[in-house]
Write a structure and sequence with these properties.
By secondary structure, the protein is α/β, with parallel strands linked by helices. The chain has 11 helices and 7 strands. The chain has a single domain (about 5-270), classed as 3-Layer(aba) Sandwich (Rossmann fold), CATH 3.40.50.150. Strands 3-2-1-4-5-7-6 form a 7-stranded mixed beta sheet, with helices on both faces. It is globular. It binds S-adenosylmethionine. S-adenosylmethionine (SAM) binds near residues 42, 69, 136 and 142.
């Protein structure tokens, strides 16, 4: 199996500090969630996607939310800033977790977000610890899908919601492309959209919404690559050659996989039944 760092999005984690430097921020300056959101969202369509999730899940009252695979903490900070929820932000990679924790402190949100570094497959809390479990572009990294979803079901209160945007498989994928998907995107569990829904049902959930995001994301990654290439001189000045080459390679690979029509995505909202 590849290492998660074979996915070039996860190398050069200090890129975000260079972007903040461009805004004239030192490494200790206080920050706002809105200043960060152009750089700390590692999924598609930025905070617009989070607004959709909040509207679908409902954010009334002081809910307890768990985000699986929280990256640099962007979604967790936005959710905490624009609701009364307390967010547990679980992240596998120590370097991402460290950056996320420090940015959250600089936003003054430490009392609203608990950053935890670890693997969801080993994550233990009492049953019914969370009102909602959310995840953006992280679950496809994780093996053992039945165990993952059973743990989500156990951790949710009855009536609680599970919400994800995740990558999916389309059509038949040959072994050679599967290997490339694993190397380029650390794609460990790529399910077809109908299998994905069935996995949720098998784990005891009622699927409320399941929408294909394949066309929308294919266009998003195409435009993202073109924009990154067009601004290469600026990116080289800010980030240096190694980081820019890594990001160009990453954006190109993602674009190739989407345009091959073998890689897609979904938005899914499910509910744990009351009884
Ligand atoms: C593409 S990033 C998305 C980060 C964040 N959700 C966002 O949208 O900005 C996916 C994250 O999931 C994390 N991850 C992968 N496997 C995980 C696991 N088993 N447990 C916890 N986090 C995991 C990765 O380290 C990575 O930071």
């Amino acid at each position: 199996m590849s290492d998660i760092k074979s996915m070039k999005l996860y190398t050069h984690v200090g890129r975000i500090y260079r972007e903040l430097g461009e805004l004239g921020k030192t490494v200790e300056d206080p920050l706002s969630v809105d200043e960060l959101s152009a750089f700390d969202q590692l999924h598609y369509h930025g905070t617009q996607a989070l607004d959709v999730a909040m509207a679908m899940i409902g954010v009334d009252g002081q809910q307890r939310w768990l985000e699986i695979g929280s990256g640099l903490g962007g979604p967790a900070r936005y959710l905490a800033a624009y609701s009364d929820a307390h967010v547990t932000a679980l992240e596998l990679q120590p370097d991402q977790h460290d950056v996320a924790s420090s940015l959250t402190a600089r936003c003054g949100l430490e009392d609203r977000i608990e950053h935890v570094c670890g693997n969801f497959l080993g994550f233990e809390r009492a049953p019914a610890s969370f009102d909602a479990i959310v995840s953006w572009l992280a679950l496809y990294h994780i093996p053992e899908r039945p165990r993952l979803l059973e743990n989500c079901h156990r951790l949710l209160v009855p009536g609680g919601r599970f919400y994800t945007e995740d990558l999916t498989a389309r059509g038949d994928i040959e072994d050679a492309q599967r290997k490339l998907l694993e190397r380029d995107l650390y794609a460990i569990t790529l399910r077809h959209i109908n299998e994905y829904q069935q996995d949720l049902v098998n784990a005891g959930f009622e699927v409320e919404v399941c929408t294909s995001m394949s066309s929308s994301w294919a266009e998003f990654v195409r435009v993202r690559l073109a924009a990154y290439r067009a601004d290469r001189a600026r990116h080289l000045r800010v980030h240096g050659e190694a980081a820019v080459n890594a990001m160009t390679e990453f954006y190109s690979a993602v674009n190739r996989h989407f345009q091959s029509a073998k890689l897609g995505g979904l938005r899914l909202c499910a509910r744990k039944p009351e009884v």
